[in-house]
Amino acid sequence: MGEMSLLQCRGWMQATSVGGDSTILAVSEPEPLLQISAAAPRSRADSVATPRGDWAPVIWYALTAAAVQMLWLTFAAITTDSAHHYGVSVTAVGWLSEIFPLLYVVLAIPAGALLDDRFRPALGCAAALMALGAFVRAGGDSFAWALTGQVAIAVAQPVILSAVGKLAGEYLPERDRPNGIAVGSAGNFVGMLVALGLGPVLAAHGHLERLLLVEAGLALIPAVGLAFALRRPGQPSDEHAAIAGSAARSLWSIPEMRTLCSLVFLGFGIFVALATWLQTLLHPDGVSDTTAGILLVAMVVAGVVGCAVLAPGVSQRRIERRYMLIATCVTAAGCLVCGASDTLAVRAVALTVIGFVLLPALPIVMTAAERLGGPLAGTAGAIVWLAGNLGGLVVALIVQALVHHPFPAFAAMTVVALCGFPLVLRLQEASPTRPVDIDHPIGAADARNEQAEPGRARDGAADDDGRASAESGLERAGAEEPERAEGDRDQPVDRGDAPE
Questions:
Q1: How far apart are CA 26 and CA 29, in angstroms?
Q2: Helix and strand element counts for the chain (H, E)
Q3: CA-CA distance, 175 to 392, in Å (whole number)?
Q4: CATH topology of 56-232 equal to that of 246-429?
Q5: Angle at the Cα of 263 (from 150 to 340), degrees rounded to 5?
Q6: Given CB 3.0 to 4.6 Å as the disulfide criterion, which of 69, 93, 126, 130 pairs with 159?
Q7: Cβ contact 222:63 at 8 Å
Q8: Residues 121, 226: Cα–Cα separation, whole Å
């Protein structure tokens, strides 16, 4: 059936004779069978010889992303002990973590432009700067050395985290790129778990320098591996890491995009505040660094499980509004319970439930924003990340001001969560038949595409009708040809140019 379709006529042409009394239908010649038979094996061979891609840079990148997240949360689970070790306040130690979302917001746009201009050198230098910062932290036993190293790592972080899409685009075939992005992004959660687990174990009893040396070694290994992997250039890709100004303005003009970014601002802000200050907030009740680290690990693990179990179904069923309403209620209630109760088991359950419903909200919002962005999906995701990091900075600073008063601090996070209610109510429940707002540039493009579909269908139907009409006309012409021949023999020839 496939070969017969290849032998069908490629076009139909209608010509009218000078007298206008007859119509001749001419059919273009079919393509030669030899050419078709020779072309078919080539197409099959091309489909078989699909490039497999180079996974080595992606794997080393995932480990590098894990290292930078590990270095970000080094002091999160040991804030009180770190303050005693360096002889500074806990709020000063908090800045060792808060400097990361601050510099991400400041450097995300220039980092993306740098990656688009010189991708491999920029990513390799960022990984080297991360490893250098890790060793700087361990170079001296003072807060100044720790802060200098953290600043260096925080400068490298936007370049590293913004490179995942472009890296997958250059080193993996199109069918493997989503998996490559997932692998690279998974490194973020792995790094968080490593930091929250290693801190209380290695830095116990004042051995902070031991923790810093171990993490420096763990950061050096992927930095060196990534540098070697990036020596091989990838394939040219259309992926861009930079946030285009015109695209960002077009996306920001859409009310739904502003609502999604506001929700990420609140939700990710609460997560960063908890990760940064939970140990300090629980310390007055006698909760040790190790126990606080276990609570944070449980929260992140529950969040990873929620991302795998809840997020895909919510995005596929387009029930973001209902889920975000549940997440807002659970987060607000959980923060209030953590502040009101002094029972460790109750707090553990509350934090685990918060992680289970709060962390999946990020990929859910990312998917909704990229769906809303359409061809500008990359820029939409970058804007959401910017909003999340900005929220992490603002909410963490609010909690920092109340860090010596646990209940008001948890109550402040409850208020932040409740601010999400009016935002959730502004979300429209998506559906496959949801009308497109053609007043927005992206919506107008989608509307034009949808309006073009019926036209394409009508054109296809017209082509089918034309082929059927031409076939019937060809049959009639074949049947009438003998009759015309008889008539021509009986009629005299009309010589219009003969002299009178």
A1: 9
A2: 21, 2
A3: 34
A4: yes
A5: 80
A6: 126
A7: yes
A8: 11
Alpha-carbon distance 169 to 162, whole Å? 13
Residue 467, both tokens: 């082929």
> By the 8 A CB rule, do 328 and 424 touch?
yes
pLDDT reported for residue 434: 41
Residue spans of the domains in the chain: they are 56-232, 246-429
**Single-letter code of the amino acid located at 19:** G
Residue among 161, 199, 137 nearest 69 (CA): 161
Distance CA 313, CA 329 (A): 20
SS3 per-residue string spanning 276-288: HHHHHHHHHHCCC
Fold of 246-429: Growth Hormone; Chain: A; (1.20.1250)
Contact yes or no for 443/437 (Cβ under 8 A): yes
- Which pLDDT score, from 0 to 100, does residue 37 have? 41
pLDDT at 87: 92
Provide the pLDDT for residue 403.
92
78, 216 contact by CB (below 8 A): no
- State the residue for tokens 């969040």: 303
CATH topology for the 56-232 domain: Growth Hormone; Chain: A; (1.20.1250)
Distance CA 327, CA 337 (A): 15
Q: For residue 25, give the 3-state DSSP assignment.
A: strand
26 neighbors 473 (Cβ within 8 angstroms)? no
Ranges under pLDDT 70 in the chain: 1-53, 237-245, 429-500
The one-letter amino acid code at 147 reads L
Exposure string (b/e) for 139-160, b if CB count within 10 Å is 16 or more?
eeeebebbbbbbbbbbbbbbbb
Non-local (6+) Cβ contacts of 11 within 8 A are 28
Structure tokens at 269: 């802000």
